Amino acid sequence: MAKSKLVKANEKIAEGVVGGYKKIEEGVVGGYRKIEEGAVGGFNKIADKFVDNFLTKEGESVEEAMARLSAEQKETKRER
Question: Which residue, 34, 62, 59, is CA-closest to 46?
């Protein structure tokens, strides 16, 4: 059976609506991801600077201090 003009027009409209929705969705999600990455990156820079200035021991890197602090925190939770 041949499709009527109305059915073809409806399909074309549906494709346009779905395509527009996907473009909007990709834009919103992409924007959210950029904001999230910026916020998390900024937080991590601040946290690293704080650890470097106040929590590292002599000759200890930031990564080593964070690992030590994490281990100490786990040990403290186990003791409770």
Answer: 62
Label residues 17-47 b or e (16+ Cβ within 10 Å = b).
eeeeeeeeeeeeeeeeeeeeeeeeeeeeeee
Neighbours of 1 (CB within 10 A): 3
Question: Based on C-alpha coordinates, what's the Rg of the chain?
Answer: 27
pLDDT in tens, 17-41: 999 999 999 999 999 999 999 999 9
pTM of the model as a whole: 0.64
Alpha-carbon gap, residue 11 to 2, rounded angstroms? 14
CB 55 within 8 Å of CB 69: yes
**What pLDDT is recorded for position 2?**
61
